[in-house]
Write a structure and sequence with these properties.
It is built from 9 helices and 8 strands. It is an alpha/beta fold and 308 residues long. The protein has a single domain (4-297), classed as 3-Layer(aba) Sandwich (Rossmann fold), CATH 3.40.50. It has an 8-stranded mixed β-sheet, with helices on both faces. Strand 3, helix 3 (86-96) and strand 4 (100-103) form a beta-alpha-beta unit. It is globular.
């Protein structure tokens, strides 16, 4: 199945330095792309510090005052940051009606596993300490940030920390072995992600760590039970479609409320593209926002303070 918007994206990305042979080349290319992607209209951006790391609080006009979403950006644990995901996080803030707090967690290879996980856990813990009860928080992320979302939930659970109301994963990367069958069946049909590219980032992030380490590759965890409700969105045409479907099956088998939406003809983190090009991007963000807001509303008492 082809999608006209995906065809345009594939043509634009062909030969892009975003898929350069070094992490430095990829970072430079993403920085250039981020410069043309400001936050959406009606969203205020406030620099903050969270868990000892830079962060941004994106607040939509008329924001509900009783909750927040901690957002963990994608980029293979090696690239990306506050600027690269400002638009997507801002659109999610509009869709939820709650502030979204993005985290500039440490990147590999300078800061390999478990640096990103430590930063995410510290950020969540500080949000709770600032008065945001767990029932008033959600965690979301895309790609590596989706995997980091699940790893953060597992680390918090294992530490006895109260978990957030819900979580959302966009095209989550939860198996850093790149051994799923989708790498062969989907192959090169996704212009965004390849096995070669993910192998480079996995190696940079893991260092000497076994890729089957559960807090690096949550799909390899023995037990996924006890987590809050999770929504997973993934494109049909991406190599991570198996990561998403297997994660959903594992969560369901562990008794975790989970919903999986596989979007026909679409690619890795298609939500990052304008709805004018990929109409389903807007539909997916709206649905994710509704899911998170529903769980935040269910747990948030009226008049509670806004975190961060």
């Amino acid at each position: 199945m082809t999608h006209p918007g995906v065809d345009v994206i594939a043509a634009q990305l062909s030969g892009s330095a975003l898929f350069g042979t070094t992490i430095a080349e990829q970072r430079e290319a993403m920085t250039r792309m981020a410069a043309s992607s400001p936050p959406p209209a009606g969203v205020g951006v406030e620099p903050v510090s969270l868990g000892g790391r830079p962060a941004e609080r994106l607040t939509p006009a008329g924001a509900r005052p009783n909750g927040a979403v901690l957002y963990l950006h994608g980029g293979g644990y090696c690239i990306g940051g506050l600027d690269s995901h400002r638009d997507l996080a801002g659109r999610l803030a509009i869709a939820t009606g709650y502030p979204v707090v993005t985290l500039d967690y440490r990147l590999a290879p300078e800061h390999p596993f478990p640096a990103a996980l430590e930063d995410a856990c510290a950020a969540y813990t500080e949000l709770v300490a600032m008065g945001a009860g767990p029932h008033r928080l959600a965690i979301a992320g895309d790609s590596a940030g989706g995997g980091l979302t699940v790893a953060t939930l597992l680390a918090l659970r294992d530490s006895g920390v109260a978990l957030p109301a819900a979580a959302a994963c966009l095209s989550p990367w939860v198996d850093l072995t790149q051994s799923a069958s989708a790498y062969d069946t989907v192959g090169e049909s996704d212009p965004m992600v390849t096995r070669t590219g993910l192998d480079l980032m996995a190696s940079s992030y893991l260092g000497a760590t076994d890729p089957r380490t559960p807090l690096a590759s949550p799909l390899w965890a023995d037990d996924l039970g006890g987590l809050p409700p999770v929504r997973i969105d993934v494109g049909e045409r991406e190599v991570l479609v198996d990561d998403a479907s297997r994660l959903a099956a594992r969560l369901e088998g562990s008794g975790v409320p989970v919903s999986l939406t596989v979007w026909p003809g679409l690619i890795h983190v298609f939500q990052a593209f304008p709805a004018s090009l990929i109409p389903e991007a807007g539909e997916s963000v709206e649905a994710i926002g509704h899911f998170l807001a529903t769980h935040l509303e269910a747990g948030a008492p009226t008049g509670s303070p806004t975190p961060a």
